[in-house]
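Final report, results section. Input specification for complex C-07:
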Amino acid sequence: MIWRFTLRRLAVGLVQLSVLIVAVFFLIRLLPADPVSRFVGLNASPEAYALAEQSLGLDLPALEQFEVFLFGDDEEVGLVGGELGTSWVTGSSVNQEIRQYLPVTLELITLSFLIAVGLGVPIGVLGAVNPGGAADKGTLIYGLFAGSQPEFSWGIIFIFVFFVVLGIAPGPLGRLSPLTDPPDFVTGAITIDALLAGRVDIFLEALWYLSLPILTLSFVLSGPIIKMVRENVAQTMNADFMFYGQAAGLPRGILARDALRAAFAPALTLIGILFGFMIGGAVLIESIFSISGLGQYAIRSILAFDYPAIQGVVLTISALTLLIYLAIDVCQALLDPRVSV
Amino acid sequence: MRLTKGYDRWVIFFAFALAACGPSQPNDTDSSSVIYITNDVPAGLDYDGAASVIPNSQEGIVNLMDPLIDYAPGETTEEGVGLLNFTSFEGRLAESWSFDEATLTWTFNLRRGVKSCVGNELTADDVIYTFARAKSVSGPSPTGWFLANVASIESFDATVLADENLRGLGDEVKKIDDYTVEIRQSTHNQLFLPALTTFAIRIFDSVEARKHATPSDPWSHDYINNVTAPAFGPYCVERWEKGNEFVLRANPQYYRGVPEIDRVVFKKVPQSSNRFIILRMEQADITKGLTPREFKKLREYDQLQVVGVTGNETLFVHMNFDSPPFDQVKVRQAVAAALPYNWIIKNGYIGQAQIWDGLVPSSYPGGKSTFHDSPEGLDVARQLLAEAGYPEGRGLEVYEDALRLSYPIEKEAILGPIATAIRTALRDIGMPVELDPIPLTQYGDRQLVKKDLPFALVDHEKAIVVDAGYAVQLFFVSSEAGAVNNMVNYRNSRVDDLWTEARAERDSERRYNLVSEIYDYLRDDVVWLPVVEYRTQWATRKGLKGFVWYPDNGIRFADLSYAR
Amino acid sequence: MTDVAVEKDQDSLGVLAWIGIGIVSVAIFLAVFSPWLIPYDPTQATENVSTPPPPLSAWPSLFWQTIVGDGPTPHWFGTDASGLDVFSRTIEATRTDLIIALSANIVSVIIGVSLGVISGYFRNIWTETLLRTSDLLQSFPVFITAMILVALAGRSWVNIVLAMSFLYAPIYLRLTRTEVLALRDRSFIEAARALGKTEFGIARQHILPNAIGPSLIQFSVTIGFAILLTAGLSFVGAGVRPPTPEWGSMIATGATQLVLGDWWPSLFPGIAISVTVFGFAVCGHILEKRYGR
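Structure output:
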């Protein structure tokens, strides 16, 4: 049953991905600027222009370009072979660049989620177990407020207050001090790589340098998480089985734990969706804190009209998001078999 | 869940523990290492690669590769910035050179015992390799070929681009012996030596470069673009993470003496305000590209210094001759009269700029400086606009699209306020101007290739070859006469003729007069509207000295030292 | 069984509800009447660049002077690096941001709800495709896609609205469809069918009014998101054209002044956006509590 559901869901996902590939490819080719200009640079003579156009493969008709993108040419293997092409700005392979930038973003948002969930769940439960109390009101207001804040605005405020005025936080210098040699590239997430290399000092330094962006992100993310936990727990606390438990004289702590377990499925969905959203949504935080993640790469590529890189970023993020949605659906089907019907 | 919570507590504990220690670690710099924070690190090191149009990439190239010759040092400013003497050259990789007028042949005698980063010795083969590579036009942006073409090196002409069979190096660049090379020009051209000093046609270590060639990439573009440019310069690449960090280590065998600054860490910090605070907190040594207000503020701190020079960075207004109403000279003059020059200098550049009174940077030899002699002011502008047939701006509504003032969005922090002030002034005389910031790439496409940008504010265009005539050839002769960057579509056959004459002129005095006459036309026709020359500035920690200004505005870290 | 909690919630919501409604009303008031409220042209550069706001202690007397018309109107919130009055811009920006957010939501509601009714009521291969396409749109990275769309179409508020509608319509489609699925087999629909009404007529007259509820609740929440997205786009330079007053671009340009010690050009628009979006979030929450479920 669950296998059939998963397979069907996977098939739909693959179709979606193919549509996505076509859409992204042709959408980008509607961009108003011709990327060839940046190659000719100093020398915009017609001959130089033609040469540059040829070297980018942009002299071919769009359909043939698409064919090259999919199946490659004599130099590259194309998307079917797992290659996203070569960036026009740096001349490096887009695969390699995404391999470098994606873990940076994933690391940042995973750490932020850990904090947001770690703080949000207990606070939300605290609000729910005393409905109507001061703690509940406070939780509700905090949840609504944090969930509706512009993270870029708060990032700037945090830098100003903690780094400039108080001087107790690191500057917006990315993930490490520029003087520190980063550990060998294994996963790309600097905290993990540092631990793999046995360098606890670098691990701690990375946490220290990431503390402000994580603070900002987890502040904004904690809003919806707290609000959702509070509501779901409150709801399950009022469910029949809880009344039974109460009547049977079970302690409140145990009741709250049971309620939390019941509230787990919707929580998983929300966190999954938020996480998928943040992979592409960490753009502003990355640019404020000089973190070279996928978002920064996306902005750079869009501003430079670097087609292969834009395609690569959009495809990667969308594919990841689709994968997360799929995982959520499958998990829910496991938790509640009615879904898969 | 419980596990997660425990982990969190741990993280928070450490965050606080570290906070208690304070941000002390990054301060322990030793004087032989500097951190240079910049808006981006080099994106590629191949001057024939796509990335070479980005100034950050050029800055990487000039620290890794040396040219055959360079300008001799000139005066030093009060702030201690060294200038170059643009009329005198001295040897770098070439020890000496001579020119034979009759055959238009230059002979270069190479320096002996010059060692590259990997220890190979410089020979004539390296020079031959460099020119052959340039002529192969195998990179997507063949800048080496282009500058050889500007220098009139024989057979480095446009036919090379069109015909694959003409891309082999003939005897125009010839090895005489291991330490002697001859280069022949097709015609007399005074741009030859200036072109050799630029970031392109710097000499490769051919032995090392060849090692990384592949059948599909015989000129090692991949390696040079992504790993390092093997060469004989003062620094070698130690680590490079594109879009993040670029680390240089001094070449221990550098022929001009090992640089005092042993290690340079280029760190990308995209926001200028972030670069400002990082320097203010003394967590880095050098930065540039701050806004004028940020530079001014940094001057207030005792531990820091700001040095600068009026070099070749300028601001001008571009009005396209093919986009009405800018085809009318009176409209262009009205704009010239209406611009809030004082506001721009005082509030836009915080005094770190001066009126640009010509179309050649005042630090360059040659060129006119009488561009703002006619009367200016809003009343004059209204009068001119009425004479053009648009009293109070009536009739300009139909040109809504042309009256959009564009500027590169990447420059918003500096150009935004200036554009707003210009918009206010022009609206005051009745021109319904709107602002339209666009990405630099789109800007370049419309300015250089399509040439359809009607109205723009330009502050990044500079002639890297130091010569008043080079700017004429690049920007002002008609496209038919060979200008590659005539962005305003200016066509004046008299200017074309004068330049043809000046280009081949051997006598410097007569050439100067011809070029001056061209600039008279450019002034009277308001081809470009020069606004201000602004200072190129660097902010550093106190004690760092030895800055020398080069026309590409890249810092040569080998010039610097820490006085402690 | 959930009634107990809801009632308790409403009690605790009393003050909060009024705060939310108050914020939203003030924002709408400012957006409508801003041209009559602002003392300075919000796009005109002046010589008074980067002047700080007057100290709070001076406000009462300055306020009195303004009322009696004695001397120039003070720059209550100071001026920015172009000499623009931050107070006038902050107020005028309410109009820019609300118009964009409202229009984007109205367009997405119209598209999303009608497609939602169709895809929920008529179930065939086409509506299935529609549904999967809208899922696909939701998997696009919102921010990056919006940047690309604005780069494609140019920086005007109409294009920003269209880009956002494109991204928000799937949310409404989903919500409506879920509701329609629950409704279509209900007895009153059967009754209508028995009365011989056309399928289209039923969808329009009976399904639509009953299925639109969740979308209207969502509306208030999504307006907040739309304001944040508009501001975020401006922050990276893909929003409305300068010098149009807009909170995000004011914060972005103001942020560069912040490090110089000029806190006012970014603080006031920052407060404005925080408070406004909070107001809409509270209203959304209240609507949800009152009419949801």
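Residues 152 and 284 of chain A are 6 Å apart (CA to CA). Chain A has a mean pLDDT of 83. This concludes the modelling results for the funded period.
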